[in-house]
């Protein structure tokens, strides 16, 4: 063995085609096409199978005559049927991927959080392809009650601290390696405190990034005294999910919340879904030069704020209050980020709980500051030039089932038109 | 002894680290806790080296090595190569190879005696692997997958392969590699074994999603429970003491 022998370094003149820029772009197009094969472009017709107790395994397909392919590289239109399912434990990996950047790049008990989402089968929806049995998840939407995952009183909290210590003591004596000890503690404690850890970390993170003192106080209140009325709205999806799915998706969520209020087995669970406040954490792009004002555009054509998710613009307008803070994660656009937190009142989704006259909706937005030099529409990570016309009337015209559903809902926000931005 | 950890909320530990019997490579840019967990476990036994390869953090999948040497792809910069040569023990030969398949960690699974290679690897690369790493190279597939480095985690004492590997394949591979093999998963059902964990003869690091069952399988197949770096010395000591009983 002569490792020091210099092997003749031949110049790789005839490089394999995979290394050329052309081949790279060809491969990129091919992969984009593969994704498109799974994405809906047109022809969703709705047939919904709601069961009265709120479990919706409906098939949502929306008719659309003017299918608009929104990426320059699309070659053909593919049909795909999406279906909404209840969260299952098998969905763990898909949901975890979607929720990965929920709290920026903070290290927290993400797996525990995903487990919480998955065990709440009555409220929450995952979007998958209808026919295939694969685990490809496209979206997850759910609402978690913050108060439910709290230790109820001081004795419980003491127990949470002491019991692991006691267990560790016990197992220290016996021959038991650290692995088994930790697992015993974890499994015994999972119903007591493992769930709580992720919510606690989430609350601490939100409190730590909020730099406006008056809002911090309100947040603290929400997380402690009023936690039982607060619902954390988790809505994550792949960037280019067809927007036609959004109204049914949110409808399903709020339907399930209202059904849960009536149908949950225990009184406590029923009350836990009577949300008075929704908290939304989300990401937006914020123009570097925009100094916190969202109402007006700057003098040029660049928008001050770009919403990664279309419905966020609507929620933003309706929120009671909000704040933003910068994201540390470097997104594809390699621009800085800042996050908004918004709080609304008088939300238009009270159909879920008709007994409450108004809501407060809290938003947390994550924004990415667009580079002032580059036009805002350039980043491909934001599917910005999406023709989004989402209104109940539109869909009814196209034969979609708001009208055909058994429950009429007069409170849907109408005419949410986010026009095509190029 | 198996440890669970994560790299920036990501449970794919085998992507961001490379563990052998003589050294450990760790990606830069992670939180200090990631680095310190390796340090705590490996302490003074073997050096823990922070590095990047080709400016990326996915070092576990780009390089392949054992106690004799380390193979890095052509995308490694000169500074990184020099840093590796400086930080690793002198007995470890660091060699940069020109190979079309540059993710060597995905293409090569090796321990100190034998290696499995991607079927499409160059003949020259195969010779280099045999020279630098001091191993016998076999071109194989695992459960029909040609990326043997991804779907197999291998040490001198055992191996864990893709869960869908058939019994016949398991027997065949086991005979080739001369170690016991088990088909299993890591990180709560992930099939990409080598991305989810990294292992050497006495310790393993797995993603934090790994269930207790998976962890016990890992500990038993790699014989980690009784393994210590100075196992040989301890064994001799025990036999000495036994003689007095």
How would you describe this protein?
- The complex is a heterodimer of chains A (422) and B (245).
- Chain A has 422 residues and is an alpha+beta fold.
- Helix content of chain A is 32%, strand content 17%.
- In chain A, strands 1, 2, 3, 4, 5, 6, 7, 8, 9, 10 and 11 form an 11-stranded mixed beta sheet that branches. Chain A has a two-stranded antiparallel sheet with strand order 12-13.
- In chain A, a hairpin with a 7-residue loop joins strand 3 and strand 4 (137-145).
- The N and C termini of chain A lie far apart (62 Å).
- Chain B is of the alpha/beta class.
- Chain B has a 3-stranded mixed beta sheet with strand order 1-15-14, with helices on both faces. Chain B has a 3-stranded mixed beta sheet with strand order 2-3-4. A 3-stranded mixed beta sheet of chain B has the order 5-6-7, with helices on both faces.
- The chains are: A alpha+beta (422), B alpha/beta (245).
- Chain B: Monomer. Associates with the 60S ribosomal subunit.
- Chain B: It is found in: Cytoplasm; Nucleus, Nucleolus.
- Chain B: Binds to the 60S ribosomal subunit and prevents its association with the 40S ribosomal subunit to form the 80S initiation complex in the cytoplasm. May also be involved in ribosome biogenesis.
- Chain B: GO terms for molecular function: ribosomal large subunit binding; translation initiation factor activity.
Number of strands of chain B: 15
* Euclidean distance between termini CA atoms of chain A: 62 Å
Name the shape of chain A in a single word: globular
Give the largest interface pair and sizes.
Answer: A-B, 25 and 28 residues
Query: What summary fits the major beta sheet of chain B?
Result: 3 strands, mixed
Order of helices and strands of chain B: EHEEHEHEEHEHEEHEEEHEHEEHH
**What's the mean pLDDT score of chain B?**
91
| Uncertain residue ranges of chain B | 231-235
Helix content of chain A: 25-40%
Low-confidence stretches of chain A: 40-73, 174-179, 290-300, 332-362, 364-422
User: Over the alpha carbons, how many angstroms does the gyration radius of chain A reach?
Assistant: 24 Å
Number of helices of chain B: 10
Q: How much β-strand is present in the residues of chain A? A: 15-25%
Q: What is the N-to-C succession of helices and strands of chain A?
A: HEEHHEEHHHEHHEEHEEEEEHE
Shape of chain B: globular
Strand order of the largest sheet of chain B: 1-15-14
InterPro entries (chain A): BCP1_family
Protein name (chain A): BCCIP-like protein
Family (chain A): Belongs to the BCP1 family.
Organism (chain A): Linum tenue
């Amino acid at each position: 063995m002569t490792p020091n022998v210099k092997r003749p370094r031949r110049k790789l003149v005839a490089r394999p085609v995979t290394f050329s820029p052309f081949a790279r772009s060809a491969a990129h197009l091919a992969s984009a096409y593969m994704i498109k094969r799974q994405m809906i472009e047109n022809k969703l017709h709705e047939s919904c199978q709601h069961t009265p107790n709120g479990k919706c395994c409906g098939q949502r397909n929306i008719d659309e005559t003017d299918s608009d392919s929104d990426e320059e590289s699309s070659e053909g239109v593919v049909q795909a049927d999406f279906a909404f399912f209840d969260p299952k434990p098998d969905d763990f990996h898909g949901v975890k991927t979607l929720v990965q950047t929920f709290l920026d790049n903070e290290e927290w008990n993400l797996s525990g959080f995903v487990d919480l989402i998955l065990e709440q089968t009555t409220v929450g929806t995952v979007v998958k392809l209808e026919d295939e049995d694969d685990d490809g998840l496209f979206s997850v939407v759910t609402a978690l009650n913050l108060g439910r995952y709290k230790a109820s009183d001081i004795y419980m909290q003491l127990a949470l601290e002491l019991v692991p210590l006691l267990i560790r003591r016990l197992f220290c004596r016996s021959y038991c390696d650290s692995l088994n000890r930790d697992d015993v503690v974890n499994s015994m404690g999972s119903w007591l405190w493992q769930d709580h850890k992720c919510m606690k970390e989430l609350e601490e993170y939100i409190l730590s990034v909020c730099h406006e003192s008056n809002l911090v106080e309100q947040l603290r209140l929400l997380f402690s005294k009023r936690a039982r009325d607060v619902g954390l709205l988790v809505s994550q999806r792949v960037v280019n999910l067809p927007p036609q799915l959004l109204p049914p998706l949110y409808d399903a969520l709020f339907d399930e919340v209202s059904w849960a209020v009536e149908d949950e087995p225990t009184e406590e669970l029923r009350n836990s879904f009577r949300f008075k406040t929704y908290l939304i954490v989300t990401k937006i792009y914020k123009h570097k030069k925009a100094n916190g004002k969202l109402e007006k555009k700057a003098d040029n054509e660049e928008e001050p704020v770009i919403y990664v998710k279309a419905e966020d613009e609507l929620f933003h307008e309706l929120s009671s209050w909000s704040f933003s803070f910068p994201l540390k994660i470097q997104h594809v656009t390699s621009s800085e980020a800042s996050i908004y937190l918004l709080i609304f009142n008088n939300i238009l989704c009270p159909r879920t709980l008709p007994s409450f006259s108004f809501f407060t909706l809290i938003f947390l937005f994550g924004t990415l500051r667009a580079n002032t030099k580059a036009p805002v529409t350039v980043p491909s990570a934001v599917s910005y030039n999406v023709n989004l016309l989402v209104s109940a009337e539109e869909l009814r015209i196209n034969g979609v089932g708001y009208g055909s559903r058994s429950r009429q809902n007069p409170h849907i926000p109408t005419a949410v038109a986010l026009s095509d931005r190029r | 002894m198996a440890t669970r950890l994560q790299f920036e909320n990501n449970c794919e530990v085998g992507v961001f680290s490379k563990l052998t019997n003589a050294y450990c490579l760790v990606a830069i840019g992670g939180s200090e806790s990631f680095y310190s967990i390796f340090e705590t476990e490996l302490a003074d036994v073997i050096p823990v080296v922070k590095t990047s390869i080709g400016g990326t953090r996915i070092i576990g999948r780009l390089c392949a090595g054992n106690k004799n040497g380390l193979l890095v792809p052509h995308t490694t910069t000169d500074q990184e190569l020099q840093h590796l040569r400086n930080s690793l023990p002198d007995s470890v030969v660091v060699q940069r190879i020109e190979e079309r398949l540059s993710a060597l960690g995905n293409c090569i699974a090796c321990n100190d005696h034998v290696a499995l290679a991607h079927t499409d690897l160059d003949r020259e690369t195969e010779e280099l692997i045999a020279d630098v790493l001091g191993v016998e190279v076999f071109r194989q597939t695992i459960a029909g997958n040609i990326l043997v480095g991804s779907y197999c985690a291998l040490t001198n004492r055992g191996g864990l392969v893709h869960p869908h590997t058939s019994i016949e394949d398991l027997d065949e591979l086991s005979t080739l590699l001369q170690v016991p093999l088990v088909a299993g998963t890591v990180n709560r059902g992930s099939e990409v074994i080598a991305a989810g964990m990294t292992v050497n003869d006495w310790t393993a690091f797995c993603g934090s999603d790994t269930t207790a069952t998976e962890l016990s399988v890992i500990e038993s197949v790699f014989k980690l429970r009784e393994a210590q770096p100075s196992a040989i010395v301890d064994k001799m000591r025990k036999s000495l003491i036994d003689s007095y009983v």
